[in-house]
Amino acid sequence: MTCTLPLSLLEVPGTEAGRSPAETVPGVVRFARRAEELGFHRIWYPEHHGSPWLMDVPPALFIAHVAALTSTITVGSGGALAGNHAPLSLAEQFGALAAFHPGRIALGIGRGPGTLDEAAARALRRGRPPLTDEEYGESVTELLRMVGNRQDAPEPWLLASSEAGAALAAKRGLPMAFAYHIRPKNAARAVERYRSDFRPSRWSRTPRVMLSIETVCAETEAEAARLSRPIDLVRLELMSGREERPLVDPESAAHYVMTAQEQELLRSSLDRAQGTPAQVGRRLADIGSRFGADELMLYLPLYDTTTRIRSLELVAGAVSGSALGPAAAPRSPAR
């Protein structure tokens, strides 16, 4: 069994050791262009602030840059965080993007602050307390109203990692992008709640579920395990409540010896597609089938652009042709 669902990508741009953001951006464009050539359906960019290794670039700016240098792939936010922005500001940003690139812009809406830095979170909220459930629902409603009133409207999605987020997506009649790569244990109840409560809307007549899945594909199982070690160390820091560390290269990460407790912590919190192309293809098919997903969004948290592109190519070679659209014509190298 291999995956036949449409495949998309969650790209989380991070700076490689010794490189500035300006030196990193061409790799982000190169990754998106290769994804377009391979026929991936969409690529989304998240909102992060104050991370030691993730780039502090608003999704709308990444979307504008990448969309201008590609031609067919849908580009969107995964997500634009409602608590950090006035609804009018997001509606104007994404309405303009939709006018610049008709039919190619998606507005993924999320809730969290996008940072573990309390000072950054306060600054983003301009000193106000964190968003309540009621305030978040009102922000989403207002944003959808403003987006819907524009002549050029992006495709809205609601990001969720819990049953509450799924319920809001259902109530507003939005497609749901579930963060399986963050909270896989919440997926079953959230997807069930979303489908049972879904109300048709102008945005979607039927429930639509996309799952984001952490994916590491290599020629061998051992190589896939080696490549996943850097992001595992970052995850251990976060789960242990310690300060987030920069993403190190696989060679440096290999020197860290995990305790049995740390190995169990990772095992119990993760459910990713990792291994050879055949293993990854089967794993994606299994997860998609288990939740009746309509689409899968792969998150490849690998250290450098060349490795991410190679992993992407291996996945593309392993899945059914129906999982990917027709390849776009190659473009000239990134400027």
What does this 3D model show about the protein?
By secondary structure, the chain is of the alpha/beta class. The protein is built from 12 helices and 10 strands. An 8-stranded parallel β-barrel has the order 1-2-3-5-6-7-8-10, surrounded by 8 helices. Helix 3 packs parallel to helix 5, helix 6 packs parallel to helix 7 and helix 11 packs across helix 12. 45% of the residues are buried. The C terminus is likely disordered.
How many DSSP-defined strands? 10
Strands of the widest sheet, in order across it, are 1-2-3-5-6-7-8-10
Principal-axes geometry comes out as globular
Order of helices and strands: EHEHEEHEHHEHEHEHHHEHEH
Q: Count of helices? A: 12
- Share of helical residues: 40-55%
**What is the alpha-carbon Rg in Å?**
19 Å
Structural class by SSE content: alpha/beta
Compute the separation of the termini in Å: 40 Å
Oligomer: single chain
Q: Detail the poorly predicted runs.
A: 327-335
Biggest sheet, open or closed, and with what strands and sense?
Answer: 8 strands, parallel, barrel
Residue-averaged pLDDT: 91
Strand content range: 5-15%
Task: Compile the SSE list and pairings.
Blueprint: E1 7-10, H1 21-38, E2 42-45, H2 59-68, E3 74-77, E4 80-81, H3 87-100, E5 105-110, H4 118-124, H5 133-148, E6 155-160, H6 163-172, E7 176-178, H7 187-197, E8 209-217, H8 221-239, H9 250-253, H10 260-269, E9 273-275, H11 277-291, E10 295-299, H12 305-318
Helix pairs in contact: 1-12, 3-5, 6-7, 11-12
Overview features:
single chain; 335 residues; alpha/beta; eight-stranded parallel barrel; 44% helix; disordered C terminus
